[in-house]
Write a structure and sequence with these properties.
The chain has a single domain, classed as Glutaredoxin. It starts with a strand and ends in a 7-residue tail after the last helix. The protein is α+β, with helices and mostly antiparallel strands and 106 residues long. Helix 1 links the parallel strand 2 and strand 3. The N terminus is likely disordered. The protein contains two helices and five strands. It has a five-stranded mixed beta sheet with strand order 1-3-2-4-5, with helices on one face. It is globular, with a radius of gyration of 13 Å.
Length: 106
């Protein structure tokens, strides 16, 4: 089962500009840290313009094949294209922002 988290929106809100999918394996400390770190980054830099879908591969292992997930936690930016992936607990904010292409690479 996947769960969705998103920023607060009204009834007529536009589709989120940033569609993110976080793959985890159960409720491990690393998975929880990745989700918490991702929420901080999104609220700080993408407030009101993102959606997060959390996919637990212990519940739905078949979903790993679609995005070619080899390690968890893995963050996948589905939109805007191109698809980008970041593996790890997302604790390095600058690495996450560069990886998602929110800020340019140096």
């Amino acid at each position: 089962m996947s769960s969705k988290t998103s920023s607060p929106t009204g009834k007529n809100a536009p589709v989120a500009e940033w569609q993110l999918r976080l793959y985890v394996a159960g409720t491990t400390p690393k998975s929880a840290a990745a989700l918490a770190n991702l929420k901080v980054v999104c609220e700080t830099h993408l407030a009101g313009r993102y959606s997060i879908e959390v996919i637990d591969l212990l519940v739905n292992p078949q979903l790993a094949a679609g995005d070619q997930i080899l390690a968890v936690p893995t963050l996948v930016r589905k939109f805007p294209e191109p698809i980008r992936k970041i593996i790890g607990d997302l604790s390095n904010e600058e690495r996450v922002l560069v990886g998602l292409d929110v800020i340019p690479r140096d």
